[in-house]
Amino acid sequence: MAAFDREIEKLDAWAAKQGWQLPSPFPKLRIHISQRYRTARSLVPQWTGEPGRMEFPAFRVAVGEANILHELAHIYFPNANRMLAEGLAVYLQQEIGENVSYPDFGEDLHLFIRRELKAGLGCDVQHISIRSLDQITTPTSLMLRVGRRTIRDGWTYFFAGSFVRFLIETYESDKFHALYSRTPLVPLQRDAGSPDRWREVYGFSLDELERQWKELISSLNCSDAMS
User: Fold this and answer.
1) Please, are residues 32 and 55 in contact by the beta-carbon 8 Å criterion?
2) Which residues in 28-185 belong to E strands, given as ranges?
């Protein structure tokens, strides 16, 4: 439980610094660890009406790779848009999380995509559709098509995390908060958000922001990515 306490302190400090309000009432955490779990979960239980429930695979806990802060982020800041929810959780795990964990295991999100995308999926970042990810509601899993292939989980989490990092670091974090607030999670309801909200918040369409993100990834030096 000491690890949970440390991650809670970090997330509390981040929320206070950014001016993000916590859920009220804040749900009581109920932590479940089992060898039956293949992946960690807390966002989907939030959607199904089990606030505070967190599930962790026993093998991840045993080797110190449980993505505690990622799952706490879903408790603190659940969202009806699955890309934004997962993107923020991946970003926060990398930025302030205590341990390396799924999906990035300490890899820089931008650099990993720049270095590994061609070998991993046989394409470059120009073939990735953030717009497709933005249409996915919680609790549906993130997925997108690359050619005839359907990509799920790991890579989609990289894309979501990298795109959220781009938004937060390129524009004011207040703008991301404003966008995030447009799609609050309501149990058993689905709402990925209107496409118009991107221009209303950022002054750019999602397509324009996606292009900026892709330009950033493409501009990275591969030799830097290998260092």
Assistant:
1) yes
2) 30-34, 53-57, 143-146, 149-152
Burial class (CB in 10 A: 0-12, 13-18, 19+), 108: middle
Candidate from 80-84, 216-220, 223-227 with smallest mean pLDDT? 223-227
Which residues have C-beta within 8 Å of that of residue 112, sequence separation ≥ 6?
Answer: 104, 158, 225
pLDDT digits (tens, 9 = 90+) for 177-216: 999 999 999 999 999 999 999 999 999 999 999 999 999 9
Q: What is residue 141's three-state secondary structure?
A: coil
Q: What is the pTM of this model?
A: 0.95
What SS3 class is residue 188? coil
2-226, CATH topology level:
Neutral Protease; domain 2 (1.10.390)
Query: How much is the average pLDDT of 137-144?
Result: 97
Say how far apart CA 148 and CA 204 lie, in whole Å: 30
Supply φ then ψ for residue 148, to 5 degrees: -95, 0
- Omega of the bond prior to 51 within 30 degrees of 0, cis? no
| CA dist., res. 91 & res. 190, Å (int) | 23
